[in-house]
Amino acid sequence: MRRRRAWHSFVIYQALILPQRHIPKRCKTLKNSNDTAVFTTKFVLEDKRTITYVTHDSEDGAWQFFSDDQFDDFEIVAKIVGLREIMDIDPTLAELINMEPGHVATRKNKADKWTIKRAD
């Protein structure tokens, strides 16, 4: 739950400092355009950590891609990237193409299959 609240705080924070075109409006599936904004962390982008937790938010349709790394200061680790960039990092994310809003997908490592369940 800490992750989800952090992302919503970050969206509000980013809306104040970024032009509106960088904030996703409504993402229903990963079939969106390659430049659809998605959320991730520096651990995924810079440290090349495996994505193990994906959310598709029911409130705003935003996609979020996390590794297992924990963080205390969200604004230091948060990143917004295009959908194509996150898919290039991990092509197995295509398996989540039909994940409905309000669901999360988890796995232990890149070799595992994704487990999808309704978000709490």
How would you describe the shape? globular
Instruction: Kindly name the structural category.
Output: alpha+beta
Give the domain tally. Answer: 1
How far is the N terminus from the C terminus? Answer: 8 Å
Helix content: 25-40%
Number of E-type strands: 6
* Poorly predicted sequence stretches spanning 5 or more consecutive residues: 11-31
Radius of gyration (Å):
13 Å
Q: Can you put this structure into words, describing what you see?
A:
Helix content is 26%, strand content 22%. The protein has one domain (2-118). It has helices at 2-17, 42-45, 74-77, 83-89; strands at 37-41, 53-56, 63-66, 78-82, 103-106, 115-118. It starts with a helix and ends with a strand. It has a four-stranded antiparallel sheet, with no helix packed on it. The protein has a two-stranded antiparallel sheet with strand order 1-4. It is built from four helices and six strands; from the N terminus they run H-E-H-E-E-H-E-H-E-E. It is α+β, with helices and mostly antiparallel strands and 120 residues long.
In short:
The protein has about 120 residues and is α+β, with helices and mostly antiparallel strands.
Based on the model shown, name its key terms.
single chain, 120 residues, alpha+beta, four-stranded antiparallel β-sheet, two-stranded antiparallel sheet
Write the layout of secondary structure elements.
Elements: H1 2-17, E1 37-41, H2 42-45, E2 53-56, E3 63-66, H3 74-77, E4 78-82, H4 83-89, E5 103-106, E6 115-118
Antiparallel strand pairs: 1-4, 2-3, 2-5, 5-6
